[in-house]
Amino acid sequence: MDRVIEVENLTKIFGEKLIAVNNLNFSVERGTTYGFLGPNGAGKTTTIRLLLGLIRPSAGEVRVFGEQMTPSASGLRRRIGYLPTNPRFPPKMTPITYLDFVGRLFRLGGEERKNRLSALIRAVGLLGDSAREIGSFSTGMLTRLGLAAALMNDPELLILDEPTSGLDPSGRKSTLDLIAELGKEKTILVSSHILGDIDRICSSVGVISQGKSIFSGTIKEIKKSVSSHVVRLELEGDVEKFCGALKGAKWVVGFERWGDFAVDVEFDRGMPMADAVRAAADLVSSLGLDLISVTSSSSSIEDAFMGLLRDEESRGFLRAT
Amino acid sequence: MLSWGCFGMKNRVDSSGQPDRRVGLGPFWAIVQADLRSLFRNRITYGWLLVAIFIQVVRTLGSQTTTDLSAVVSSGLGDFIYIWALVIIGLAASSVSSEAGELADSVMSKSVTRVDYVLAKFASRITYTLVVFSIVTAVLVGMGLKLEAGDYNGLGLASAILLVALALVMLTTLGVGFSIAMPNTVMAIVTLLVLWYSMTALFPAIGLGFLSPGSLLGMLPNVIKGTWSQEGWETVGGFATVSIVSAVLSSAYFYLKDI
To answer: What would the pLDDT profile of B203-227 be if each residue is shown by its tens digit?
Structure first.
């Protein structure tokens, strides 16, 4: 597969004071939706600005579509759609005038601009507000307008910086649905610190912490890397009796009760997960309890992410000592 | 509610990988037009035009029987150097710095080069200043000519107007330049205010009269009467040089800076 984005040894130091990006390496392959994860202040937005040529790297390089990205690479930016986090637009413009302006920045012809902006305004649900000044828009409306602007040039690569930031649950869901739909035909890089969003829409993921890449791979790989063999069982019936039975089970390393009806059970690592779950289900059944749900707590990307950050922190400490 | 089904887009990409059918006037004109539209819809513009025209009407009507055309026009043009320079400084020195947040989001992340953007800003702000100047000056000269005092020369009158226009171009160029160089809008405005009024009042005292808009105003009555001196050429050269150097240096800085 060819690579749409290649980042090699990328470093950005602001004013010889702040190392925002530190020797970063990653690549995004064509047709993938790549999640760019990191806590606040990790350097995600700085990296995105470097990808767009808005700022210059202190060292290393960024290649987009195989060409080096620079501030004057307007031809490359013509093939990119960008949604900034909490986007800011000219407050006196309306969605129609703004999208028309964006179309002209991309050198689209008049008829094409009109067709595209009207379809996009409808697609992002701003038809009723298309004549209102942008200055009066809510955060959710600004994000939707930003998405429309990012799609105005029908880009091959979409870069979305925290696209669900500030959205209500309904807006968040519809935005994620839209990104998932767009992911079928475009290469997308989504930056976020909302892990559930990344889990839902991305096929690959990169994790950045303090400007440094600490993981790059598939969602499956990141989850597997911190697999802890813990399963949460939600039960109906005598949970005390179940906990008592767990104490005598050889395949159980430990357990912890959560509330009235949930128990986290940690299995022996030598035992295949499927066998462990089957054994737990048999035990529940033999005690006359009913199983409401089974979830693998180690399968959540939150755990994986926190595990990676913890590992990186301890490695950093060891490096320092 | 977002729905994507109604907008089935496909990338139209030719064999070289470049999108096709990209036409139109380009980013430069798009930015110029958007900036001019925003400026001319601004209440400041309406207020400025109304007050400036009112002052010129009062000035010409009030001096109908006592003053010559050269004096009336010189005094009217002087308003731009002493009073309306404040408005020009405010608008020019905030042209780039006030857009700092939305600049990257809404403009520079698109298919725009830094040269496109910075040239468009210079072009739009200079055009705006000259359009307002032309409207107010047309009222001033139109009404002044009714005085029929006869102490003017057509070419001299045009030269005087162009000299003041050049001074305003210099002021606008400096304003946009300061706006590029200083991320803080207030700082850019204050610095330019200090510089402009120093040029106007102090430069003649230190032998830099050819760079002083104040000295220019002293020359205007004679220029309007048709007397052109060597000092006039020095002023033209000085103003043009400052404008060009300011535009080149600030463009180079904008090209290199992080947005």
So the answer is: 888 878 788 888 888 889 899 988 8
| Separation CA A6–CA A13 (nearest Å) | 20
Give the model's pLDDT for residue B67.
65
- Cα four-point dihedral sign A229, A235, A240, A244: negative
Question: What are residue A255's DSSP bridge partners?
Answer: A265
Residue of A nearest to B20 (CA): A108
B35, closest residue in chain A (CA to CA): A90
**Could you give the CA distance from residue B222 to residue B157 in angstroms, rounded to a whole number?**
10
Contact B77, B220 (CB under 8 A): yes
Q: What is the pLDDT of residue B12?
A: 42
Residue of B nearest to A174 (CA): B2
Q: Do A84 and B105 make contact, defined as CB atoms within 8 angstroms?
A: yes
Q: Tell me what pLDDT residue B55 has.
A: 93
Distance in angstroms (rounded) separating the CA atoms of residues A238 and A120: 56
Instruction: Find the CB nearest B2 among A87, A110, A178.
Output: A178
Q: What is the pTM of this model?
A: 0.80
CA of B5 vs chain A CAs: smallest distance (Å):
8
A76 to chain B: nearest residue by CA?
Answer: B111
Gap between the Cα atoms of A263 and A243, Å rounded: 8
Instruction: Test B111 with A181 for CB contact under 8 angstroms.
Output: no
| Min distance B34 CA to chain A CA atoms (Å) | 7
Q: Where are the domains of chain B?
A: 4-256
Q: Provide the pairing of β-strand A3-14 with A59-64.
A: antiparallel
Residue type at B136 in one-letter notation: V
Query: What separation in angstroms does the CA of B36 have from each of A67, B120, B128, B132, B181?
Result: 35, 10, 7, 12, 22
- Alpha carbon B44 to its chain centroid, in Å, reads 15
Task: Say whether A55 and B258 touch across the interface (CB within 8 A).
Answer: yes
Q: Specify which residues A208 forms β-bridges with.
A: A213
Over 70: is that where the pLDDT of B35 sits? yes
Facing residue for B41 by CB, picked from A89, A92, A108: A92
- A47, A52, A104: best mutation site toward chain B, by most B Cβ within 10 Å? A104
Q: Is the pLDDT of residue B48 over 90?
A: yes
Highest mean pLDDT among A18-22, A209-213, B49-53, B90-94: B49-53
Best mutation site among A107, A141, A178 for testing chain B: the one with the most B CBs within 10 Å? A107
